[in-house]
Design brief:
Elements lengths: L1 E2 L26 H18 L9 E6 L3 H14 L5 E6 L1 H9 L6 E4 L2 H9 L3 E16 L19 E4 L4 H16 L5 H6 L2 E5 L2 H9 L5 E5 L9 E4 L7 E9 L5 H11 L2 H9 L11
Parallel strand pairs: 1-7, 2-3, 2-4, 6-7, 6-8
Antiparallel strand pairs: 4-10, 5-8, 5-9, 5-10
Helix pairs in contact: 1-2, 2-9
């Protein structure tokens, strides 16, 4: 069994280079873009008390937020001319380690409360709040050669890929497998599925890539990562599924604290929730902890 190595986050000014591959820009049309910018401008102007910040706003975010935060960055920059957003995506556990080691970040958005809470307890992140949720699905290749039609079929797959125990999607996956044994009456299910695991990856995009490349019969990812046409989706039973909770906060010692506070406000706003919802997130959540 091979295990994916944690990739170092790679930023690019204004846009992103994913640790694995270049991520395509969001394809929002001009009309949608103008409407989004207008809505965002009203909100962000109300938060602004000074001119454009000179320092770029550096956002560390879980890999599963890639497309949603790219669209959010477009709206943020359009509404605040002169503000530059740098987006850095990786597994939440990798980003947490980077912050603990002193990496420059203004914002941290985690797919697992454990990583955010650890940083907050150490005084490295302030004011964390819940801003989105997600859930798990099974993905298979478009042709589904292994014939996996239900969650229970994972126990008979030859090649299953999941996240490592430390990456949020991996922790949620293990919890779902445990729940399935009791809630869905599948005794021995966790052990059976784990016995079929051929690779454990350090972020959810690497997990998905194994299926896209034909190197796995099935994988467990977030619903937001199941791209129609590239993979097929098999539902996880509601009683076994796990709700992934996304928290966001300002990194202590942020070099651009004013813009960081605006980003957190925007992510939790009605417009921010609309962007998240368009990308499949469950955004109707309590904004404060």
């Amino acid at each position: 069994m091979t295990r994916g190595l944690a990739a170092r986050p790679e930023p690019s000014h204004g846009r992103v280079v994913h640790p694995v591959a270049t991520v395509a820009r969001m394809w929002a049309g001009p009309t949608a873009r103008l409407g989004l910018a207008a809505s965002a401008a009203v909100l962000l102007a109300a938060c602004a008390t000074d001119g454009p910040d000179r320092e770029p706003l550096r956002v560390f975010a879980a890999s599963s937020l890639t497309e949603a935060f790219q669209e959010m960055a477009d709206a943020f920059e359009d509404a605040l001319p002169g503000t530059e957003v740098e987006l850095v995506f990786a597994g939440s556990q990798v980003l947490r380690l980077q912050i603990e080691q002193g990496a420059h970040a203004d914002i941290f958005a985690s797919a697992d409360p454990r990583h955010m809470e650890s940083l907050a307890q150490d005084g490295l992140v302030t004011g964390p709040r819940l801003f989105a949720e997600n859930e798990l699905v099974v993905i298979v290749p478009p042709g589904n050669p292994a014939g996996i039609e239900a969650f229970a079929d994972l126990a008979g797959a030859h090649r299953v890929v999941i996240g490592t125990p430390n990456v949020p999607v991996g922790a949620y996956t293990r919890e779902a497998l445990r729940r399935a044994e009791a809630a869905v009456e599948l005794p021995g299910f966790e052990e059976a599925v784990m016995g079929r695991v051929v690779s454990e990856e350090s972020n959810v995009r690497l997990v998905r890539a194994k299926v896209e490349l034909g190197e796995a019969d099935a994988a467990i990812v977030y619903r937001t990562d199941a791209v129609p046409g590239r993979v097929r989706t098999v539902q996880v039973p509601p009683r076994a599924n796990v709700r992934a909770r996304y928290l966001i906060g300002v990194v202590a010692g942020a070099q651009n604290p004013a813009a960081a506070e605006r980003w957190v406000t925007f992510a939790s706003s009605a417009e921010g929730r609309r962007i998240l919802s368009r990308h499949g997130f469950l955004a109707d959540v309590r904004a404060a902890q």
